[in-house]
Amino acid sequence: MPNNAEIAKTAIDDFKKIQKYMVLAKEEGATKTYAELKDEYLSLKAILNVIGVNLTDIDKIKE
Q1: Separation CA 27–CA 4 (nearest Å)
Q2: pLDDT score at 32
Q3: Are 25 and 61 in contact (CB under 8 A)?
Q4: 3-state secondary structure string, 4-41?
Q5: CB-CB contact of 62 with 25 (8 Å)
Q6: Eight-state DSSP code of residue 63
Q7: CA-based diameter of the chain, in Å?
Q8: pLDDT digits over 3-55, tens only?
């Protein structure tokens, strides 16, 4: 079973990747894709908040 540090690292990596795809989707005007990515973004953001990760420096979307 993964420990808290492994869970946090995986969630942070996924969070950063989703944000990158959200930026690309927004630039391309892919509104449906952006909406789906935003759902994933919000879920990851909630998980990271629960485990105490400070998102100030890594959250580039700021929605």
Answers
A1: 35
A2: 97
A3: no
A4: HHHHHHHHHHHHHHHHHHHHHHHHHCCHHHHHHHHHHH
A5: no
A6: -
A7: 40
A8: 878 888 999 999 999 999 999 999 999 999 999 999 999 999 999 998 888 98
Give residue 5's pLDDT: 84
The kind and range of the H/E element at 44 are helix 31-50
pTM: 0.85
Buried b (16+ CB within 10 A) or exposed e, 5-39: eeebeebbebbeebbebbeebeeeeeeeebeebbe
Q: What is the DSSP letter of 46?
A: H
